[in-house]
Amino acid sequence: MRAPTSIALLLLRVVLGVVFIAHGLQKLTQGGIAGTAQGFSQMGVPLPEIAAPAIIALEIGGGALLILGLASRILGALLAIDMIVAWGLVHAGSGFFAQDGGFEYVLVLAVVGAAIAVAGPGRFAVGAALSGVVRSRRQRRGFTPARA
């Protein structure tokens, strides 16, 4: 992967990770798990007692791992799904613009998450460095995986 593409993916990962960490911390500090579950219940989120801690953990932990570039494809997909669900349950009926409660913001977050899920973390990621170490060890032992 070329350096400019990897730099772009690094920027996307870091910004998306910071945004999700901030939102997860907001849920945790302003309402806690119980308050977030209550809010989720009012919004029609299924199983809010399970969804609240899961979403808080995804947003904080997933955001941090995304910044590092670990499990980026999986986390990008999970965060995109998180935003698609928020769109459907909360924002879809409020029009487009975020200032009116619309889906503009969650749409951008979902698309960035999906882009990371498809493109991967890029070269400047802990996950990429770790996979290079594993590949190097395999090659030293005589195991060279076939490349397409």
Question: How is this structure best described in words?
Answer:
The chain crosses the membrane at residues 50-71, 78-99, 105-134. It is a multi-pass membrane protein. Its main location: membrane. Belongs to the DoxX family. This protein is mostly helical and 148 residues long. The protein has one domain. It is 76% helix and 0% strand. Helix 2 packs across helix 3.
Secondary structure: elements and pairs:
Blueprint: H1 3-30, H2 32-43, H3 48-68, H4 72-91, H5 104-119, H6 126-140
Helix pairs in contact: 1-2, 1-3, 1-5, 2-3, 3-4, 4-5
**pLDDT under 50 segments (min length 5)?**
none
Cα-atom Rg, whole angstroms?
18 Å
State the secondary-structure class. mainly alpha
Helix content: over 70%
- The total number of structural domains is 1
- General shape: elongated
Count of individual beta strands: 0
Strand/helix succession: HHHHHH
* Percentage beta strand: under 5%
Question: What's the story with the biggest beta sheet?
Answer: none
What's the N-to-C terminus distance? Answer: 15 Å
What integer is the average pLDDT? 91
